[in-house]
Amino acid sequence: MERPGAGGPRGPHRPRPAGADALAAQRRGGRDRPAVARPLEPALPTNIDVTELAPEVRAELRSLPAPIAERVAAHLVAAARFLTDEPERARAHASYARAVGSRIAAVREAAGITAYLVGDYAAARAELRAARRMTGRPDHLPLLADCERGLGHPERAIALAREPDAEQLDRAARIELRIVESGARRDLGEYAAAVSVLAGPELEPASVQPWTLRLWYAYADALLAAGRPDEAREWFAATAGADEDGETDAEERVAALDDEPA
Q1: 37 inside domain
Q2: Which residues of 29-55 are buried (b: 16+ CB within 10 A; e: fewer)?
Q3: pLDDT computed for residue 260 by the predictor
Q4: To the nearest 5 percent, what fractions of the chain are helix, strand and coil?
């Protein structure tokens, strides 16, 4: 499952046990604590095919008992299916998969991505951190950094963007991470830095790439925030010209700049 998030803040304060019974329960590992309720299982579409999952994910799921592995696989497929158009529905499936298969990295990844898409950045950060610990891979650094922005921590977003592990990302993910860092720089009022972090040969590719529109749009936005509206208009216009499917509002941004008084 693929979209713009360890050692995080301390959890809620837990008061010391008030009596001997509570202390004894704590020493037994909390066996007397009430169980956390499992979310209700959402209804699955009728045409779910678990072979849609990547082979490596299906291999991971073999560590679960067969009936549970099959249910988790079905809900992962459903989550992926609803990811773009119905993120809340996708999250319900990912949350159920997480409730019954939390030791599977792909499950934690799905829970994190769906939480991110509905704006629950704290949950997304926790799940994506867990997936990273389990796999050792930095695949979701851009999402983690954007979660920090969403939680009001632009400096943490910048620190993630500067991690050495970022060099392991593919080109598209590295560009996405730079876009997040540029936004974090703007959050901090560092407008010149927000522009410079996006500068580079990727701004003038030989052909339009999947990431080109997002990079051009972000660059135009950074230029505008830095007080360079004429240059910003050029890049918004370039974005609008290449945006055949109307993925951005670049055309409206050009019109707005044209309507502004000199």
Answers
A1: yes
A2: eeeeeeeeeeeeebeeeeeeebeebee
A3: 74
A4: 65, 0, 35
Q: What SS3 class is residue 166?
A: helix
| Strands in 129-259 per DSSP E | none
Angle at 38 between CA 33 and CA 44, to 5 degrees: 170
Q: Are 158 and 149 in contact (CB under 8 A)?
A: no
Q: Rounded to whole angstroms, how far apart are CA atoms 68 and 62? A: 10
The verdict on residue 198 lying in a domain is no
- Quick: pLDDT tens for 224-240: 999 999 999 999 999 99
Number of domains in the chain: 1
Look at residue 201 and tell me if it is in a domain. Answer: no
Per the CB < 8 A criterion, the answer to whether 90 and 82 are in contact is: yes
**Rounded to whole angstroms, how far apart are CA atoms 46 and 34?**
35
Does residue 70 lie in a domain region? yes
| Residue range(s) defining the domain that contains residue 77 | 1-7+20-137
List, for residues 171-227, the tens digit of each pLDDT value. Answer: 999 999 999 999 999 999 999 999 999 999 999 988 899 999 999 999 999 999 999
- Provide the whole-model pTM: 0.82
